[in-house]
Amino acid sequence: MIIPTKEKGADISRRDLLKKGGAMATVTLASGVTLMSFGGKARADGLKPGARWGLLIDAGKCPEDCSACVSACSKEHGWENNGLNTDPQWIRKVTLREKSSGRENSLPVMCQHCDEPPCVDVCPTGASFKREDGIVLVNKHTCIGCRYCMMACPFKARSFVHEPVTDQRTHSPRGNGTVEGCNMCVHKIDRGDGTTACVEACQATGNNAMMFGDLNDPESDIAIAVSTYASVELRADLGLGLGVRYQNI
After folding, report:
1. Residues 6+ apart with CB under 8 A from 198
2. At 22, is the secondary structure helix, strand, or coil?
3. Domain membership flag for residue 34
4. Does position 61 have pLDDT exceeding 60, yes or no?
5. Domain count, the chain
6. Smallest Cα–Cα separation from 186: which of 67, 25, 29, 26?
7. Residues in Cβ contact with 42 at an 8 Å cutoff, skipping those fewer than 6 apart
8. Is residue 243 part of a domain?
């Protein structure tokens, strides 16, 4: 097959070339999620029209010594470190300290599922993309491991897989040489579970520090909570429109 190097008198960039090749295939990303075209447009069989899925995290209810959400995410998606060089960043507990008062908060941080995701803007192949319902994903078939998205993310929410992975979950594919991060348990959403592994684990502890739901549904618990009680976005100054909000920080 001969690939032309010119198109309408202009050089074809590497990104354009990748787009042309990727457009030929339909790629399964996860259960119910199919990449229909290379430019990052995706269709999900379980996609709820008009939905904007999000998380609300109450730091005031999150004990410093609790990591149930992290353990649940690791088990659900199979990203246990197992002594390897990879340092997965799907979700992690961090401690925020206010300089003036010394007040500290412990809270989980993961992909914030931005309305305007920097990772999508810098990805040269379209592997990083945002679904219509606000979930930001990585297509492992087209990720070339350049790690531009890792540098662009203000929340250190992505990590690079350095080694071959084993015992993969069919609903959450991983791959050596690719970038990964929180996918908001897209497989659970698309099959109608109505929650995520981290939220389920948090509720099981009795802390109830995490809430999941449709931010665009005024009758949902999360939308009512956001409209009733003050909440903030991390790095709100960046104007990214986050799908994860925090209370009591």
Report:
1. 69, 70, 72, 73, 91, 108, 110, 185, 210
2. helix
3. yes
4. yes
5. 1
6. 29
7. 29, 33, 34, 35, 36, 129, 131, 132, 137
8. yes
Structure tokens of 245? 């909000």
> Is the model more confident about 35 or about 185?
185
> Phi-psi bin for 185: left (phi > 0), alpha (psi -120 to 50), beta?
left
pTM, two decimals, is: 0.81
| Confidence category of residue 38, pLDDT binned at 50, 70, 90 | very low
| Residue 1 resides in a domain | no
Q: What is the CATH number of the domain that holds 96?
A: 3.30.70.20
Instruction: Please tell me the predicted confidence (pLDDT) of residue 87.
Output: 75
Determine the distance from the C-alpha atom of residue 178 to the mean position of all C-alpha atoms in its chain, rounded to a whole number.
14
pLDDT tens column, 89-110: 899 999 988 888 888 889 999 9
Q: Does 214 reside within a domain?
A: yes
User: Domain limits at 43?
Assistant: 6-247
